[in-house]
From TrEMBL:
Gene3D superfamilies: MFS general substrate transporter like domains
Recorded topology in the membrane: Multi-pass membrane protein
Name recorded for this polypeptide: MFS transporter
Domain of life: Bacteria
Domain Major facilitator superfamily (MFS) profile: 6-397
Location of the protein in the cell: Cell membrane
Coarse class of the protein's main subcellular location: membrane
Keywords: Cell membrane, Membrane, Transmembrane, Transmembrane helix, Transport
Keyword Membrane listed: yes
Cited PANTHER family: MAJOR FACILITATOR SUPERFAMILY MFS_1 (PTHR23517:SF13), RESISTANCE PROTEIN MDTM, PUTATIVE-RELATED-RELATED (PTHR23517)
Organism of origin: Vitreoscilla massiliensis
C-alpha cells in the first residue's frame, strides 16, 4: 500500500516545489526597486515576464505530456524552475531577473499540465474528483508558500534579495533528484509532437455569450491578483504602520490560500450563484482597496484581500464549470485554453497600463484608477449576466 502512494506523493511534492518559485519574487520587488533604482513600470515588467512565459508555455507546450509522458515534462519543468530560481538569486539587474522570470513562467506552464496528468495517473485515490481537489489544493498551497517564505526570509535577513531563494532551490533540487529516481511508466500510445496553439470558442448562441462573461470574469480576477503580485509591496508601505516583504508576501499568500479554500468550501454552489458571487467580490475588492488608500485602514485592506481571494477562486470555479457545460470532448481542451489565455491577458495587459500610470501619477493614484476601472468592469459583467439569465428564462417558457 505504501509503495502505491510513493510515486503520487513525489508528484505532489513536484507540483508544490515547482509552483513555489513562481510568485516568490513578488515581496522582493520593493527591495529590487530600491537597490537598482527602478520605476514602477520596471517592476510590473518583471512581473509580466513571468506571465508571458506561462502564456507561451500554455499556448505552445501544453500537449508535450501527451507525446513525451508526464514524467519527462515534469522533470523538465522542475529543472527550468531550478535554473530560473538560481538565476533570480544571482541577478544583478532588472534584465537578468526578467529573463529568469520568463524561464520560471515557462516551467510553470509545463508543471501545471504535467502535474495534473501525473497525479491522475499515479493517484491511489478512489476517484478522479478527489484527485482534482488534491491538485487544486496543492497548486494553491505551492503558489502561496513561495511569497510567504520569500517575504519572511527577506524580512528576517534584513532585506536580502538572494537568501529568500535558497529554501526553494534546496527543495526543488531534492524533489527533482527523487523524480529522476522513480521509474514512471512511459505513455503506451504517445501522440506526435504538436506545438500549434489550439484555441476555440463554444458553438454560437447562448453558450458562447456565457463563455464571454466567464472569460471577462477571469480577465478581471487575474488583473486584481496581478495588482497585488506586482505592486502590493509599494502601495502597502503608504498606509500601513508596519510593512515590509513579510507583510506583502503574507498578503499575496493569503490571496492564494483563500482562493483555493473558496473553491473547495463553496464547490456546491451552482454555476450561476458562483458567477454572481464572483462579480460581487470583484466589485467589493476594488471598492475596499480604493477606500483603503483613502482612509489608511488596516481593516479595509484585510477585507480587500479576502474579497480578491474569493473573486479569484469563484471566477475559476464558475469559469471552468461553464466551459465544461458548453463544450464537448471534441473542443473542450481548446476552449479551456482560450479561457486561460483570457485570464493571463488580464494579468499582462492591464498591468502594463498600471505601471505606466504609476510612473506618471504615483502608485496610489494609479491603483485608484485601476480599481475604479475594474469596479466598473465588474458592474458591466453582472449586468450582462442578469440579461443572459433573463433571456435564458424566456427561452425555456
Amino acid at each position: 500500500m505504501q509503495k502505491r502512494w510513493i510515486p503520487f506523493y513525489w508528484v505532489c511534492a513536484a507540483l508544490i516545489s515547482g509552483t513555489m518559485g513562481t510568485a516568490l519574487a513578488s515581496p522582493l520587488y520593493p527591495l529590487y526597486q530600491q537597490l537598482w533604482q527602478l520605476q514602477p513600470s520596471d517592476i510590473t515588467t518583471m512581473f509580466i515576464a513571468y506571465m508571458a512565459g506561462t502564456l507561451l508555455s500554455i499556448l505552445f507546450l501544453g500537449r508535450l505530456s501527451d507525446s513525451l509522458g508526464f514524467a519527462k515534462v515534469l522533470r523538465a519543468g522542475l529543472l527550468l524552475v531550478l535554473l530560473g530560481v538560481i538565476l533570480s538569486a544571482l541577478a544583478q539587474n532588472a534584465f537578468m531577473l526578467s529573463s529568469a522570470r520568463v524561464l520560471i513562467g515557462i516551467a510553470s506552464g509545463l508543471i501545471s499540465t504535467s502535474g495534473m496528468m501525473g497525479m491522475l495517473q499515479t493517484s491511489p485515490l478512489p476517484n478522479e474528483g478527489q484527485t482534482a481537489r488534491w491538485y487544486a489544493s496543492l497548486n494553491g498551497f505551492g503558489f502561496g508558500m513561495g511569497p510567504l517564505i520569500g517575504g519572511v526570509v527577506a524580512q528576517i535577513s534584513g532585506g536580502s534579495v538572494w537568501l529568500p531563494y535558497v529554501p526553494v532551490i534546496v527543495l526543488t533540487a531534492v524533489v527533482l533528484y527523487q523524480m529522476c529516481r522513480i521509474p514512471f511508466h512511459a505513455p503506451s500510445d504517445p501522440k506526435p509532437l504538436d506545438f500549434k496553439p489550439r484555441l476555440a470558442l463554444p458553438a454560437a448562441g447562448l453558450g458562447r455569450k456565457q463563455f464571454y462573461l466567464a472569460a471577462g470574469g477571469a480577465f478581471a480576477a487575474f488583473a486584481m491578483f496581478s495588482l497585488y503580485a506586482s505592486l502590493a509591496g509599494s502601495f502597502i508601505a503608504e498606509f500601513l504602520p508596519w510593512h515590509g516583504p513579510a507583510v506583502s508576501g503574507g498578503a499575496l499568500a493569503l490571496v492564494l490560500f483563500l482562493s483555493s479554500a473558496t473553491q473547495l468550501g463553496l464547490r456546491r454552489l451552482s454555476l450561476a450563484q458562483a458567477y454572481a458571487a464572483a462579480t460581487a467580490m470583484i466589485l467589493i475588492a476594488n471598492v475596499m482597496l480604493v477606500l483603503t488608500l483613502q482612509l489608511h485602514s488596516m481593516v479595509l485592506f484585510a477585507c480587500s484581500v479576502v474579497a480578491t481571494a474569493m473573486a479569484h477562486g469563484l471566477t475559476l470555479m464558475a469559469g471552468f464549470g461553464k466551459v465544461q457545460e458548453v463544450t464537448n470532448h471534441h473542443n473542450r481542451a481548446a476552449v479551456v485554453s482560450t479561457f486561460l489565455v483570457s485570464g493571463y491577458f488580464g494579468a499582462i495587459m492591464p498591468v502594463i497600463v498600471l505601471g505606466w500610470l504609476a510612473d506618471h501619477l504615483g502608485v496610489s493614484r494609479a491603483v485608484i484608477i485601476y480599481c475604479s476601472a475594474f469596479g466598473l468592469w465588474a458592474i458591466a459583467l453582472f449586468s450582462g449576466f442578469v440579461q443572459l439569465k433573463r433571456r435564458q428564462r424566456l427561452q425555456t417558457v
